[in-house]
Specification:
flat, 2 domains, single chain, mainly alpha
């Protein structure tokens, strides 16, 4: 039988998949403001826009990465590479320099920050 992956590679890939599923599940549980959200202390609750930004970036990554791995030189792969790079840059710069501005905007609109 020909194996496409070594056993250690498959274990690492499975571990990363479990980690990704658990991170997305916890993020969605916090964004839904359910029992898990209520169990957190108010000062330790994450900002909702941060979680939404990270989930958006993860969704773009999940679309881009398989395309890039399977067809690295295809035009669609290059388009998604540019989109992922742009999304990564925008989310990163928002976290780095625009966080107070985003918090101010959200408070001004009357939306809950946490």
């Amino acid at each position: 039988m020909i194996s496409l992956m070594r056993r250690t590679d498959a274990v690492v890939l499975l571990g990363l998949a479990v980690l990704a599923v658990s991170a997305v599940s916890v993020s969605i549980a916090v964004l839904r403001r359910g029992k898990f959200y209520e169990s957190l202390r108010p000062e330790s609750r994450p900002r909702r826009w941060v979680l939404a930004s990270l989930l958006f970036l993860f969704a773009v990554f999940v679309l881009w990465f398989p395309l890039w791995m399977i067809w690295p030189n295809a035009p669609i792969s290059r388009v998604f590479t540019v989109l992922f790079g742009l999304a990564f840059f925008i989310v990163g710069m928002t976290f780095k320099w625009l966080a107070p501005l985003v918090d101010w905007f959200i408070k001004r609109r009357g939306w809950p920050v946490r």
